[in-house]
Each structure stands twice: as structure tokens, then as C-alpha cells.
From TrEMBL:
Keyword hit for tRNA processing: no
Region feature (Disordered): 179-199
Compositional bias (Polar residues): 179-195
Family membership noted in the UniProt record: Belongs to the U2 small nuclear ribonucleoprotein A family.
Protein's recorded name: U2 small nuclear ribonucleoprotein A'
Organism listed in the record: Phyllosticta citribraziliensis
InterPro entries per record: LRR_dom_sf, RU2A
Subcellular location: Nucleus
The entry's keywords: Leucine-rich repeat, Nucleus, Repeat
Amino acid sequence: MRLSAELIGNALSYINPLGERELLLRGHQITVIENMGTISKDVECIDFVDNRITVLGNFPKLPRVCTLLIGKNRLQQIQPTIAEQLPSLMNLMATDNKIKELADLDPLGKLQKLTSVHLMGNPVTSNEHYRLWIIWRCKNLHYLDCQRVTQAERTKAVESFGTEEEPTELAMQIMSKRSTTIDTSNGTDKSNSAGLTKLTGEEREKIKELLKNAKTLDEVARLQQMIESGKISI
């Protein structure tokens, strides 16, 4: 089902137990987030649980949204601009989705107010570096999968992955491995990696070489944006 302005306008809106104004959009088989510019400006929580969304993003700037419930979907990717779209996001519940690679979660690191993340039921949680990686990327995180983040974990994360300016070899390896396509075998969603198909063979090889020689996380992120846009500018 399409997330139309009409569907949003007819959706239930109420004050939830946390005192937030919540917009209820669960269980509509929504495949793509769109038309969110039509929601009420006082909405603080959006409930997308039990839909078919594959990409987290495509929001207008919603400065009041602090909680996002998007469990039981088909999430595989998060747009790099999510922090610009939801600058006040504090709580993300994205359990039971299809996120596979640690680097696919990196956009969460730009959410400066993010304190609580729940990702149980995603393939990525089986990665041996999962918990420390999220703690390293999300500097202000207090809870991950219902467990409090400890100072000992923060220290170990830095030991494992270094700093933003001087990441370890392990950190660079993780950053260079991310999903580039979306599995739509059980849905009708389109991939947001269309940019990859726009690149010529020569450009693809150039990107691979640049990723191999990247020295900082910023360089890797910049190259990823080039892949997504399909435009190479060196």
C-alpha cells in the first residue's frame, strides 16, 4: 500500500504512555516512506510497525520526532541523511528487520541525540563485533537491545576501532563492507542503490581502488555517497 497523504490524514493520533504525540501507521503493508510532510507538526512518535518498508529515510525535516517504531518491516538500508531528517531522534525500535552489515548502520552515528536503539531480530546482530561497533558509532547511546551501555564497553570499543580520525584496520574493513542491493523477492520495493547501476565498469574499479586506499571514515562515507548517487567526482 502507498503511504498517501490521505492515509496519513486518517491515521490515529494520540498521546502515548510516554507523553508523546504518536502517529499510528502500523499494519498497512506500506513499502516506501513518503508524503511525511503532511503529518501534524506536533507529532513526536511515529509507529511504522508491521509494514514492508525496506529503506529508512525519505523524511522531510521533522525536528519534533524523538521516537521511531519500525519493527517487523523489511529494513535493509538507512539513508545517510537520516540525521538531517530526524535531528531529535532519541529512541529507535527497529527489531525484526533484514539489516545485514555493520556499516549499513553507520548513518545512526550522525544522530547526536540517539540514546536508545533496539535491533534484535536483524541478521547483523549475529556479527561478533555488533555491540561494540554500534556503541563506537553512536557516542551518546545509553541502551542497546534493552541492555545499558557500560563505560567498559565504550573503552573496549575505542581499543577495537580507534577514533574517527585514526580508525583501526578492523574499523576500515567493516566500513568498506555494506549492502549495495535490496532483496525485493518478497515485496515490491525498489532498490535505493540505483546509483550503483549508473556507474561504468571503469568507475566501479576506480571506486573499489579508492575504498581500498581510504584512510579515514569520512573518506569511506564520501565514496559511499558517490556510489548511491551514481556520480563520481574526485
